[in-house]
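Q: Hi! New to this. If I give you a protein sequence and the SMILES for zinc ion, can you show me the bound structure?
A: Yes, paste them in.
Q: Okay, here:
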Amino acid sequence: MKFLLTPDSNSYKRMTNAELEDGFTIPELFVVDEITLTYTDVDRAVVSGVMPVSKTIDLPTHKELASAYFCERREVGVINIGDEGVVTVDGETFNMTNKDSLYIGRGSEKVSFASKDGSTPAKFYLVSYPAHTAYPTKLVAQENANKLALGEQDQSNKRTIYQSLCPKTLESCQLVMGITEIESGNVWNTKPPHTHARRTEVYMYFDMPSHERVFHFMGEPSNVRAVVMKPETAIASPTWSIHSGVGSTNYTFIWAMGGENQEFDDMDHLTLADIS
Ligand SMILES: O=C(O)C(=O)C[C@H](O)C(=O)CO
Ligand SMILES: [Zn+2]
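A: Thanks. Here is the predicted structure of the protein with zinc ion bound:
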């Protein structure tokens, strides 16, 4: 388990680009036949990538969780960004194709991940938060997510938000998670930007060629900094930080939130005039 201790809202203003990357990003999520785990201090989110190629991989517990098994007091959101795979939760199997989501409830003792075909592996992206009660484990296929079409072609921000693990599709303690697909010929996410002091958020960018980048803007609205994001890397947004990006091409990203409430629309909206 790695640890991400995010810098505070004053320190980030004086940091070099490398220090910002170290302080806010998770640079390596998917490693062949491994599970990577990063424990963050943004609402105690644990961010993980699982890429099974030649074997089934279990979700392990860790000293920091002080629990007999990972989900003893935690819930987990899983989205598959690779080829077909299978998640097994206490003996029940869930087949997950690309961009399907799975909610795993508190109390699930044994969780494991496998690819259908290791030559075209599944890539499971996980975000977990502490949970106060047990809600049922549930699979939500991408077509069953709540869809929001946002943006305009002439603003370069045409995109579809898939709210897959959210109060409209299931019950969870604090996790709200989904996918945003930027349409071809568009590059901006979360434009205009926002903050939400009631929740923290983690973005994970993917579905773009390895040489392309997303320039992710973070920080207080009056002190915005850019972090250059490679595909399949994640960045944490503390409560005080905007989170918005522009790509060198179109791309997809997964957003996941935890905190005081689960209301997606509870945002403090900004205009670009507020940003400097
Ligand atoms: O493109 C967008 O707009 C988003 O995807 C916004 C995120 O879902 C978000 O930041 C929710 O708080
Ligand atoms: Zn947000």
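A: The domain at 2-274 is CATH 2.60.120.10 (Jelly Rolls). Let me know if you'd like me to explain how to read the tokens.
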